[in-house]
Design brief:
Blueprint: H1 8-11, E1 15-17, E2 23-32, E3 39-46, E4 55-60, E5 65-67, E6 72-74, H2 79-84, H3 96-105
Parallel strand pairs: 1-6
Antiparallel strand pairs: 1-2, 2-3, 3-4, 5-6
Length: 113
């Protein structure tokens, strides 16, 4: 039986595609809720060239689906949505109040609800 889990080190750098197969970016890293043990969200890197000018935005984990034929994740999030997505204020540590903002932006119920 195939494993249903994956190491976080294997997720970092994995490509993210649109439903039409266009490459949108990659998973830069994951943020994990230390108390509940869930993946809170993935931070997606997109745009730029060779890492210069690359944008980073949190994406709810529920918005990503692994596709074995692409060897990457597929999302229904558009490039325009990524560009306009809320950014985390520098003075704000990870918290649920802030996370509620981007979960709402993508139309997904937060994982802790």
């Amino acid at each position: 039986m195939a494993s249903t889990t994956i190491s976080s080190k294997d997720v970092d750098g994995t490509a993210v595609y649109s439903p039409s197969g266009d490459r949108l970016g990659h998973i830069d890293h994951l943020r994990i809720d230390k108390e509940l043990g869930y993946v809170a969200y993935a931070v997606m890197g997109f745009g730029g060239f060779l890492g210069v000018g690359e944008g980073h935005h949190p994406v709810p984990w529920k918005k990503l689906r692994y596709d074995t034929s692409l060897n990457g994740y597929v999302t229904d999030i558009t490039e325009e949505q990524l560009q306009k997505a809320p950014r985390q204020p520098e003075e704000t540590d990870d918290n649920r109040q802030w996370a509620t903002t981007f979960y709402g932006y993508y139309g997904v119920a937060p994982y802790w609800v």
